[in-house]
Amino acid sequence: MKQSMTFIPTLREVPADAEVKSHQLMLRAGFTRQNTSGVYSYLPLAHKVLKKIEQIVREEMNNAGASELLMPALQQAELWQESGRWYSYGPELMRLKDRHNREFALGATHEEMITSLVRDEIKSYKRLPLSLYQIQTKFRDEKRPRFGVLRGREFIMKDAYSFHATHESLDEVYVKMFTAYQNIFSRCGLDFRAVIADSGAMGGTDTHEFMVLSDIGEDTIAYSDTSQYAANIEMAPVNATYEKSTEEQKELVKIETPDQKTIEEISTFLNVSKESCIKSVLFNVDDKFVLVLVRGDHEVNDIKVKNLFGASVVDLATAEETIKALNCVPGFIGPINVSEDVEVVADHAISSVVNGVCGANQAQYHFQGVNIERDAKITRFADLRFIQEGDKSPDGEGTIRFAKGIEVGHVFKLGTRYSESMNATFLDENGRTQPMIMGCYGIGVSRTLAAIIEQHHDENGIVWPGSVAPFQIHVIPVNIKNDSQKDLAEKLYTQFTQNGYEVLFDDRAERVGVKFADSDLIGLPVRVTVGKRADEGIVEVKIRKTGESFEVSVDELHEKMK
Ligand code: ATP
Ligand code: MG
Ligand code: MG
Ligand code: MG
User: Fold this and answer.
1) Is 140 in the pocket of ligand 1 (CB under 6 A)?
2) Could you list which residues have their CB under 5 Å from ion ligand 4?
3) Among 161, 226, 370, 532, which is most buried by a count of CB atoms within 10 Å?
């Protein structure tokens, strides 16, 4: 590609509002431009990288047995109403009306769409398992779009869904997808970890996030220095000792055991508004659990608190009031459902409550997948201590370290969360009707692009790993007005291209300093400079990553590059 004919608007200055390196570099190197908050254009260079990432994703997904399709981004409200997420997803779901006043959502994710598609066509266990994926634009009205395309409101996601007759079958595909994800992120040149995650608004149980290690990551990972153990800190357990409950504490807590409650029902039950009902935490690891509901004043999104509600509810006003009511200081919190010799586990969300800052997201994400069976009992902790660096890893092997991570991928075992609510059933071998068992698997394609830059840059610009570089070679004539330089550069451009390389040819009439600065910013793996010795057929080769440079004859270069 000739640089004079394409669109690479580079900037010398660091844009003032770009906080993180990848965002700065994507603007400076002419990869993206923001249209409005969280909405970006991908200019030709970024588009090329996206296509490369997508190709890697496609190869690995196909290899894992998934077939590509493309579903609508525009989705009728009825689908989301069936699953219940129309009411629970909250303001992150972009909603709109058509000319007939019918309601729609722009796809934030596609569980509903794919479940409806598959349920209408697949009726027998003989057609299962089935894995499908798409690469498509997603819409989420993020509260805080930031860090450029790392957290956009419109972004590109690969989302895959699998349908199964048995849990064993789901387990098998989950492993395949997990492996595919490891391959994808390795091939993208990323230093990442797969961590135990929280099932969040999607429902389901078994789930892992793929985290790119980076100081700007919004998640904290607790990992073992010697074993495979790695968890989102939200899921990392912690030991605590506790004291028994007192009578007056009991009075402060309302306890009931309703089954299968929705947030609406809970708010009615607690006689508080839906919005102020849930601000809280709960917890379950290996049958050990804590549940605390603390009233707050934030918006409530996705709370289908089904599993929870075989259990008990505590209404404890705000975190501050909780702490006051339980007569404890920060660092103490009152849980229920803890039998006397239970080792209590807690997480980040509890620490948030303790610190009085528990947010809606934190809270809502802790209601799923919890199995609370015991009688409620009010207890008070002493010495609640969260997992810390230097602690022994929960698997008993190695020592805990912390790192920050950017979530680039997420795999879930959804189970029957969507098939049950949306009635996606099949006939099993014995002719019995069963809900399909599902998995879902997401990758932030546009976020991955930025995450790669976050891990691959230096003070002069981006340093692309070969696998995803927009072009492999940058050919730069020092002076395009010099005929022998121009001719040799053009010849190299043609020959490299013919040999299957992707080449960016800086044919602009710019000063060489400008060209080199742009070239460093753009960060292609190899630069070939055609300068003074063009007459002799000698050029300079520079390796972007190492800075190593050497002179070489054109013949030798062709030899090397065969
Ligand atoms: P986050 O915790 O960062 O908000 P998420 O857990 O809400 O992400 P998922 O629902 O798991 O995201 O979606 C699958 C993938 O889509 C994520 O792992 C991430 O890579 C990507 N993704 C999610 N939200 C965004 C966004 N706003 N901008 C860019 N990529 C995103
Ligand atoms: Mg999110
Ligand atoms: Mg997440
Ligand atoms: Mg996620």
Assistant:
1) yes
2) 410
3) 161
State the pLDDT at residue 99.
98
> What DSSP state is assigned to residue 51?
H
Write down the pLDDT at residue 393.
79
Q: Whose CA is nearest to atom 31 of ligand 1?
A: 444
Q: How large is the average pLDDT for residues 350-361? A: 29
What is the distance between the alpha carbons of residues 225 and 235, in angstroms, rounded to a whole number? 18
Find out whether the beta carbon of 408 lies less than 6 Å from any atom of ligand 1: yes
Show the tokens assigned to 423: 């009635």
Closest atom, ligand 1, to C-alpha of 448: 20
Q: What is the pLDDT of residues 169-186, one digit of tens each?
A: 999 999 999 999 999 999
φ and ψ of 26, to 5 deg: -65, -35
Mean of pLDDT values over 292-309 = 30
* Token pair 């795999």: residue: 411
Name the residue with the closest Cα to ligand 1, atom 19. 444
- CA gap 290, 285 in Å, rounded: 9
535, burial (CB in 10 Å: exposed 0-12, middle 13-18, buried 19+): exposed
115 close to 419: Cβ distance less than 8 angstroms: yes
In the sheet that 473-477 helps form, which strands lie side by side, from edge to edge?
503-505, 473-477, 526-530, 538-543, 549-553
Q: Is the pLDDT of residue 268 over 90?
A: no
Whole-number pLDDT of residue 228: 87
- Alpha helices (H) along 252-396: 263-270, 274-277, 319-325, 348-354, 360-364
Q: What is the ipTM of this complex?
A: 0.99
Tell me whether the omega of the peptide bond preceding residue 237 falls within 30 degrees of 0, making it cis: no
Q: Give the pLDDT confidence score for residue 341 in this predicted structure.
A: 32
Residue type at 124 in one-letter notation: S
CB 232 within 8 A of CB 366: no
